Amino acid sequence: MLLFKSTITLFLFGVMLLVMPTSCQQATSENTVTPVTARTLVSSTLIGEYSTDQLRSRFSGASAPLQFFIRYGIKAYRLEYTTTNSDGKTVKASGALIIPVVATALPLLSIQHATITSETDAPSNFGTSSEAYGYGSVFASQGYIIAAPDYIGYGASKALPHSYEQRNGLATASLDMLRATRDFLSDQKVNWDKRLFIAGYSEGGYATMAFQKKIEEETGTEFNLVASSCGAGAYDKPAFMKQIINEKTTGVNYINRLYVWVLLTYDRIYGLNHPASYYFKEPYAAQVTAQGKDVTINVSLNQAFSDSFRKGVNDGTDKTFLAAIQDNDVHDWKPRTPTRLYHGTADEIVSFLNSQNAYDAMQKRGATKVQLMPIQGATHGTGILTFILGTYDFFGSIQ
After folding, report:
1. Distance, CA of 295 to CA of 211 (rounded, Å)
2. Which of the residues in the chain have pLDDT under 50?
3. What pTM was computed for the model?
């Protein structure tokens, strides 16, 4: 879900550590995989090529220490590719690909971004205020090939609604971006060592978990997924939804907007087509009708829901809505890939129960490579740095 503007700098400052390759990460013949032949890449455009001096010049003042981490020059590209939207239609999507200018074989890191509300922040736009431009360049300069999908609703697909917190929409767009990246690397003869790491925080954490599940369950040996690090994602959708419906939330309007956005996304994608009055009491129903996901609601959201909606969820009679929620659950399965679940125990936006429930369910299914990493006392924002540093250590430990 949301990655706060006030914590973006901290997140991105730390992410350079996350992607630093280590000497223990050597490819072996056991890691060799045979890609499928199907192509998703439609086109590629060189955004720019940047020398180490040019990269260092981007950082001054408080960000000046980042100059130290510039190691290689980079080339940044915008990839456009075909993918499938949530309605089953083929659409054109996009993402950013950042490649270090170095001959050494390098691993690939797919980073699923957190919530963005501005088109300018989409990775493929590579705007000066975007993560991809400012800090994506830093972690690529450290020696990872960086794939950063926009998701549906941004970049080439900006005319379409974003599939916010929708499992298949996020995972499919990410997977097809990965395939387009593979196509590009093959075409350009870029030296990729075939190792794949994936990571994300908040909406990116949920997207990463959905992406991992799709890779493991649907792609066979197409990719050599080495490790996955998921931070503060809303994995257990049924339990989390009931918590929001029944328990007091922060009542902060910009947090409420996230919950409303998820609800409206599911209502649209699953063809529920309920009026706002189905979900909300007045005056909130009228406000949601008028403003949609941008509504301002300054009370605990459970106070804004209609009594009939709450009853239908709690007694199980609202079967279509509950089926939509269940379809987006990604907490109860058995990962094969080494996986870490980072989450602040005081997270006020995405409840810690999501990671705890995921870990418990995975353990019950016999998963032996999943670790729960509680960040004691951390909120959604203050847990980010621990996630980044922990992910760096985790990825570096993979032989």
Report:
1. 30
2. 2-35
3. 0.90
